[in-house]
Amino acid sequence: MNPVSAKASPGKVVGPSALESHGSVRPLAAEDLEHVAALFLMKFRHRRRQRDRAIAQTADYMRKLYLDGDKSKALVQINPQGRLGGFMGVLKARYELNRTALNAAIIGPFMTDSSIDHGWAGPQLLRALHQSEFDLYLTDSANRTSLAFARPMKYQLLPVHCLEWTCVFRPGAMAVATVRRKWPGLPRLALDPFAGAFDALARRRFDPPAQHSSSQRIHREPIDVAQFAERLPVLMADYSLRPSWKDGELPRLLALAAEKRADGPLHFGGIDDETGKMLGCYAFYGEAGGIANLLQIQASGSHWGATLDALIAAARDLGCVGITGQTQSRFMPQLFGYKNVFFHYAGGTMVRSRVAEVTEAVRSGDIFIGGLMGDRWTRLSSDDFGRV
Hints:
388 residues, alpha+beta, Aminopeptidase, 2 domains, 12 helices, 26% strand
């Protein structure tokens, strides 16, 4: 949820008649895609001069993400002159709370065209969304403008989930990977020797940490996507407010997540005890020489530390120079036990619901959110369309 340009005061209540006189909101349609893609590239990729290839690739991906299957829940605002004034990406999901089914809206890119919008598109889009059939609304990618909008709309902020953690394996190589991601045309030989020399000097400081669990009875192994899709719902069963994936929805979601390209291929792993009982699982993007990016991690009971150990070991074995991921309250104590782990704000995680029991579950942290129940797994969060 990232409103890039909205000029209305976040705290001002705008009446329905005033909003309607400044345009209308309707579901995204196929004929909107090129305009939405061009606006997205300008706002989120900072391309004032978009190439046709980039627009076409972005539009094709948005078609798959928002228009395949059920009726689109994504919204567009059309100004009185008939032009696209704004867009809100919305993905439909199912949750359950103590076996009660809930319809959820996952809010993604939220943008307005500042060249034609005079502060009405953002409020209109939010008002239309909140009048829909959903029982809860959530996002894990809100920027600071979104936070200001959400405050008077009774969104609950989950501060821990707003942070991102980074564990550094090789600081010199990690700095090079960060620079190369920003400027992919830089020659490798220009930076690698300096990174290698620095990492040799810093090796002792960045040696692998002692593991939280040294038990020989815990086994780490790579798993495939089907095994991960079997494990995850079982391991998240102790959340009262959790996703309800049915009829192959989770494998389809993982297939879409695997299309993300910025951080390398998607890898899966898990840990088991000596009897074969599953204790945890994880999924992360990564490739040798790059920075691994966590998609999802889940563990049962007291096994978060061992699962985190396995994740970091898997990224090291792959040749990654570091790993980054969204924080969760359930493994924050284990993260604090690692050296060379740093935290920073990455995007607001917020939930809104009119259901009192949902609000209480969110308040107590008893909600499965982030990762696959967010929008950071989509290509819109990171990929450079037209170049990748």
